[in-house]
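Note to self: the last two entries modelled the partners one at a time, which told us nothing about the interface. This time every component goes in together.
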Amino acid sequence: MYESVIQDLIDELGRLPGIGPKSAQRIAFHLLDADPEDVKRFAQTLVDAKTKVLFCSVCGNVTVDTTCRICADPRRDDTVLCVVEESKDVIAIERTREFRGRYHVLGGAISPIAGIGPDQLRIKELLGRLQDGMVTEVIIATDPNLEGEATATYLMRMLVPIGLKVTKLASGLPVGGDLEYADEVTLGRAFEGRTAVG
Amino acid sequence: MYESVIQDLIDELGRLPGIGPKSAQRIAFHLLDADPEDVKRFAQTLVDAKTKVLFCSVCGNVTVDTTCRICADPRRDDTVLCVVEESKDVIAIERTREFRGRYHVLGGAISPIAGIGPDQLRIKELLGRLQDGMVTEVIIATDPNLEGEATATYLMRMLVPIGLKVTKLASGLPVGGDLEYADEVTLGRAFEGRTAVG
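The predicted structure of the combined assembly is written out below.
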């Protein structure tokens, strides 16, 4: 229906996660109407990000240097290591200002359906980082979903025998939500993990 | 929080219509993980589309030539002109295969809030196309919302005195929907526009 350059643009946009065909069309026409300089800058930003962004050689987080800002920061606590799936999880945890240790980014979660097993994740690198005995606690902060839980279980089985303190983030009611809207699994977990207040 | 090249990418993506901050972050990390060749091709597609796509000198539709495919097609009916807001409306109508006339793309709708008045739309060009008396019917196919209706009213007041047949697309129940889920305005319009069946 469309001229091929327009269809190509719609197709490329439609390949992005969470963008359906209607949104892709809407964004394409927005870009066709936009200032040519804005579109050029957007295209350049894409190429720049892809060229400049590397993965930290220590933790696997995104970085523009060989090691990321957190690994390079001497003030962080070397005895606690928090294991997450993705770089964006690092940012989410940093925003809480609750954690001053180091991170390890796995690069995903175990998912047999997507063909991702432990070998596709940065687990060997994690074990390597634990060898010098500096780390005394590993906090597993994978996503609270099927793949994240499977990954957490795998990591626990591997790390507990080493004699490390292994902890997991608490499951429970999201703060600011309504109890009645919590799903039954979350509510169940909130009961299991209830804490004494008096 | 992020390295500036990553933040720039998230910001650029967040400027696209319908992309919130969370989606922008998700898409950015998807692109950082993607094959560099794929990202380069995406950036090139953006620049290509923006460089090659023009607006038809006759109807205002998107095109890669001076006149669009529809205006250039000698088999279309020159006596009926369908007025739409955007190029994507042309595609939507073409998909129905119900219309064999010509189009006129206004480039938007009257919206005092967005500062768009009749002068910002291609209405002068529309009147120019009607001067040779070839067109006998103008079908107004603006969006069935506030701005679209305002634009339709403006066009009707301008075109009816010229002595043209002016029609508007029917409002009513969307086909395939449930009557109970139709909003009251749509249902009211469906009553107003009811047709005799026997």
